[in-house]
Structure formats: C-alpha cells, structure tokens
Design brief:
Muramoyl-pentapeptide Carboxypeptidase, domain 2; about 35% helix; globular; about 220 residues; about 15% strand; 3-stranded antiparallel beta sheet; alpha+beta
Length: about 220
C-alpha cells in the first residue's frame, strides 16, 4: 500500500468513524504507521483487515480450520478484521512483542454473531463463550484471542491450549509451571501496554474497551 493510498484509507475512516480523531492520535504514537498496515476492505466503512505478514504475526485462525473445540471449519477463510481503534492497538502490541524478540499468534478476531450462536450452542457456558443475546467484544470487532511465539515461530508454553474451557485457562490458575505463569504475564503485560484489557477466565482473550460498537453480522469474502 502506498502512502497516498494509506491517506485515502484514513480519509474513509474519518468520514465514517466517529472515533477517527482518537485513532489518528494513536497513529502518531505508534512506531508502525497504521496507514501502511491496515486495509479498508470492500468499501465497508469502519472495518480494518490485519495484514499478518507485514506485522510479523503468526496466523492460527482457529475457526478457519478444524483444529478447534468444535472440530469444524466455520469461517470461510483465515482473515482477521477489527475496528480501527482495536487494530491500531494490535499493531502497537505486535511492535512491543517484536522488541522483545517475540511474535504475536492470533487465533481469533472479529466473529460474526451467527458464529457466536453456533459456538454458544455447543459450549453453553457464558464464562467461556458469551451468550449471543448481548454478544461479545468479538462480535463488535473489539477483541482478540492471542498468544506469543519466539522469534522463530515456536509457541511459548501457556500451561494449556487455546480454547481449553476449564480452570486451567484462568489467568491465575496455579497448577502450571513457573515458565507458563511467566509467559502468561508476559503476554498480559504486552497487551495491556498496547491498550487492551485482559479477561480473567481465558489467558488468551483481550478486549479493547476504550470505544464501543454494536454487535455485527458482517461476513467477509475470500477474494
């Protein structure tokens, strides 16, 4: 994406996004230029697609594969969409991790409400999957499920796997190694510094709560 194209994207945000001024301020503070990373997709105002390759993020989009708790592929392809403010914060997190010789690993981003319903029908436990009535931050494009890998791409030990819906997933669970506890803290510190809020029952889940958006049904294409 050229700088001129990046400016055009930001203009689109400012016309359609009531929080664009706040986003522009955060751009100036980040060492990675937002306009060079985010993509406005299909002229859908207010959504940004994360470019995994440019950010050095490892894409493990769990629901675009069968390697998830449902053992079923429910996303058409592995794309990550977020609201612009959350996307800017994720860029900051990737930059912080890089300075520590680490890489972000992403399992999930925006999740359409139709998929939220499908997950809830299986789990039926709001401690781990939000009830579809009010929806979750995922349905608003304001949440990410994330882990850390070393510079070579090897996943760090977090004591249990992503989507382990048990007490082992709780951030404060004590029945894991000291190294796993340290890695959970390292991930939390990075995400909090970038502007996200942790969720106590899932070490991998982080919300961006500075802004608010309604739940959405936007379904992306794979062209």
């Amino acid at each position: 994406m050229t700088i001129l194209a990046g400016v055009s994207v930001l203009l689109l945000f400012s016309c359609s996004n009531p929080f664009a001024e706040r986003t522009s301020e955060s751009i100036g503070k980040d060492s990675v230029i937002l306009s060079d990373i985010l993509k406005q997709v299909d002229s859908i105002a207010g959504w940004s697609q994360i470019d995994f390759e440019k950010l050095g993020i490892i894409a493990k989009m769990a629901y675009a594969d069968t390697a998830n708790f449902m053992h079923e592929k429910i996303y058409p392809c592995a794309k990550c969409f977020l609201r612009p403010e959350a996307a800017a914060a994720l860029i900051k997190a990737a930059d912080i991790a890089k300075k520590q010789n680490l890489r972000l690993v992403i399992y999930d981003c925006y999740r359409p409400r139709v998929y939220q319903q499908k997950m809830y029908d299986i789990v039926q436990n709001p401690d781990y999957v939000a009830a579809p009535g009010n929806g979750s931050k995922h349905n608003r494009g304001l949440a990410v499920d994330i882990a850390l890998a070393d510079a070579s791409g090897v996943l760090l030990d977090f004591g249990c796997a992503f989507d382990d819906f048990s007490e082992k997933a709780h951030y404060t669970y004590q029945g894991i190694s000291e190294q796993a506890k340290s890695n959970r803290k390292k991930l939390r510190d990075i995400m909090v510094e970038a502007g996200f809020e942790p969720y106590k029952n899932e070490w991998w889940h982080f919300n961006y709560s500075t802004v608010s958006y309604p739940s959405d049904d936007f379904l992306w294409n794979c062209n």
